[in-house]
């Protein structure tokens, strides 16, 4: 994660409730009760303390290293299945699609980064 990632990715994971937080990282018993979902007996991992530690650091190598350490922990201990799932995501597009970019934040195509050749014909 980059130093500015807190405003998007880290915030979504820290809250425990988001579109694609399959591991429920950050979900508290109170949030589970509010959203009427079962809370596992063994608990759910949280990275809130790591996020808080990185947030207070000034921009620079120390802050970058803090976010990198948190990201490594996420990918190896908390949500180790993410690279496995994302690495096997197949996207089928039409021949006229000349550029396709996956928006990591929404796990769908980036509407600002797609391009087509406009050689499509319409009609019988």
Could you explain the architecture of this structure?
Helix content is 36%, strand content 7%. It has two domains: 5-86, no CATH class; 90-124, no CATH class. Residues 1-9 have low confidence and may be disordered. The strands form two sheets. It has a two-stranded antiparallel ribbon with strand order 1-4. Strands 2-3 form a two-stranded antiparallel sheet. The longest helix is centred in the middle third of the chain and has 18 residues, at 61-78. Helix 3 runs antiparallel to helix 4. It is extended. The chain contains five helices and four strands. The chain is mainly α.
Number of helices: 5
Strand order of the largest sheet: 1-4
Strand content: 5-15%
Extract low-pLDDT stretches: 1-9
Characterize the overall form.
extended
Number of strands: 4
Provide the structure class.
mainly alpha
Q: Sheet bearing the most strands, described? A: 2 strands, antiparallel
């Amino acid at each position: 994660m980059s130093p500015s990632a807190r405003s998007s990715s880290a915030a979504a994971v820290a809250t425990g409730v988001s579109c694609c937080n399959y591991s429920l990282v950050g979900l508290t018993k109170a949030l589970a009760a509010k959203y009427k979902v079962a809370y596992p007996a063994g608990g759910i991992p949280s990275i809130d303390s790591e996020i808080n530690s990185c947030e207070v650091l000034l921009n620079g190598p120390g802050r970058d290293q803090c976010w990198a350490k948190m990201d490594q922990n996420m990918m190896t201990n908390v949500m180790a299945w993410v690279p496995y799932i994302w690495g096997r995501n197949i996207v089928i597009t039409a021949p006229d699609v000349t550029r396709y970019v996956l928006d990591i934040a929404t796990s769908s195509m980036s509407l600002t980064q797609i391009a087509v050749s406009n050689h499509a014909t319409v009609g019988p």
